[in-house]
Amino acid sequence: MVREYPSQPLVGLGAIVWKDGKVLMVQRGKPPRAGIWSLPGGAQHLGETVAQGIRREIAEETGVEIELLGLVDVIDSVQTAPDGRILYHYTIIDYAARWVAGEVVAGDDAAAAAWFDPAELHKLDLWEETHRVIEKSRLWLD
């Protein structure tokens, strides 16, 4: 799968995972956005459903099992190179989820993974869309 300068958008899957009032975040280990904190997730694989892909990605990146609660939003992330060509184009499908089991450990493409109190998220210099979907995901809790 070609990620840089793709011929078509790629499907990214993510989850806003909640446990005891905290949200699960990962620090990206690879481009795009290497070193940046974000929601856990990754690319959908051929032949897997969105739900299967989200559960797989969360397990690979963080070591935890989740229960999907519902669709929060679909977001377009397009980054343009200096020459005007599309460098990255992801259509990101974010679901609200609840932690079921497992201890958080960074794996796969994540440099770090941790639970954060929502009041601490401003310290992470998150993408504006990340803040928005985290807040929107609260509708699925309780």
Q: Could you explain how this protein is built, in words?
A:
The longest helix is centred in the middle third of the chain and has 13 residues, at 50-62. The model has no long low-confidence stretch (mean pLDDT 94). 29% of the residues are buried. This protein is an alpha+beta fold and 142 residues long. The protein is built from two helices and seven strands, in the order ββββαβββα. The chain has one domain: Nucleoside Triphosphate Pyrophosphohydrolase, CATH 3.90.79. It has helices at 50-62, 128-137; strands at residues 10-19, 22-28, 37-38, 41-43, 65-80, 86-101, 110-116. The radius of gyration is 14 Å and the shape is globular.
Topology:
Blueprint lengths: L9 E10 L2 E7 L8 E2 L2 E3 L6 H13 L2 E16 L5 E16 L8 E7 L11 H10 L5
Parallel strand pairs: 1-6
Antiparallel strand pairs: 1-2, 1-4, 2-3, 2-7, 5-6
Structure summary, number of beta strands = 7
Largest sheet: 7 strands, mixed
The CATH topology label is Nucleoside Triphosphate Pyrophosphohydrolase
The termini sit apart by 38 Å
Strand proportion: 35-45%
Please give the CATH class. Answer: Alpha Beta
Properties at a glance:
142 residues, 43% strand, 7 strands, Nucleoside Triphosphate Pyrophosphohydrolase, globular, 2 helices, alpha+beta
Provide a concise account of the structure shown.
With 142 residues, the protein is of the alpha+beta class.
